[in-house]
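Quarterly update from the structural biology core.
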Amino acid sequence: MARQALKIPGPLGQRMRGRWRLSIRRSLLPAVRFFADVIPRLLDITVAAGLLLVLSPVVLVRATASIWQTGRLFDAEDLVGRFRSRIQRLAFAGHGPARGLGVWLSVLKGDLAMVGPRPLTAAEAVAVPAADAVRFAVRPGLVSPFGVKRKVGIAHVGESRLDRDFVYGQSVKGDLGLAARSVLNGILGGDGTGRAMPRVLNFFGIPIQNTSMAEAVDWLMAASDPSDPGRRASRQLAFVNPDCLNIAWRDADYRDALLASARVLPDGIGIHIGCRMQGLALRENVNGTDLFPLLCAAAAQQSRSLFLLGARPGIAAAAAEHMQQRYPALRVAGTRDGYFDAADEPAVIEQINQSGADILLVAFGAPRQDLWLQQHRQALKPPVRMGVGGLFDFYSGRIQRAPVWMREIGLEWAYRLLQEPGRMWRRYVIGNPLFLYRVWRQMQAPERFALPAAARAPEIARPAGVAGMAP
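Predicted structure, tokenized:
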């Protein structure tokens, strides 16, 4: 009987032990949810109360000034908060400094959190699709994941997706990190509010499209459309960062290749800072590394084919394989490494043309890739051609990209410098300050760096808010 008793499921049996563990987990779940909600709220209260206490003399002066100027203490903006409740974002009434301190009273009240999705107006909240309503499960924040990325022009995936990722992955550590990154990237001049946003930027007489990532992808799809009567026109696209513009300053052939391109797009935090120096706003950092997956997604959806040329043997093929796993409908017409000499060029061009590719991506590095495309513009048949630098290295896995938090504070260049100091130190340690010095020189004598007449376009105003909730 004793032996039989041991066979009966019980505290010493595996099945019962598993049930106990599941029971314990279920009993702890409400406690976990409670602390996950309470701890961030306690942190909000602690920070808001501490800040208002430390700045209490400023708060008292500001409150007195508000009553003196307007007869009221606060201006309140009606917004939609957690669970779609009506909330108010407070600011001290009147004009002058320190008005924004009033918002910390909204945090104390519980209408806002330090970190959360951007608070919406009633009209914006009504337009939020049901699939994105999870954003209303948490308090909106003074700092939002979308806002942090927008400040450095890398909010490419859309506000809704960033909000969803935030809600499902929220933690105290993550909130503190996001708040810290918001403070750090504030030195870049915010999101451009109050500054002119021209359609075309002028750096050293080279016209650079001040556009968004979505518009750039749309342009690529339109330019490679088989039904487009202008499909056979030469449409070369180039990305430029401060290093590229430094090269164009002294290399006339490269400068001419950029001027002959259908579009030149801004790549890198240095362009953002250069715009700020000129009192302008950069709409987005339209770099090739972030554009590539969006391009692949659009190409898969609209039946465009890509040809990847460049990098070390096997790298382009590995990058193509990775993207086809990510987007199974993506058509890669062919790949070829960049290790060939002049005698092999006719065969390489023939391989590209025979592939029937709609878009050719060339990863030789600047300025070689742009010069090569310009040199062979008559022989190449793909309707859209673009130089993409070291893009294949990232998507093949050969080189690791900077963590997101470094990109959010504009320090991706520092990560690249740490990865390859011997190759990158001149570009960043010498090149970045040299670029900013040359921007200053352009500002002193703008007539020397006038844009070609065809590239000039009227300025567009900075939108007052965020247009819609991009997917």
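Residues 197-460 form one domain.
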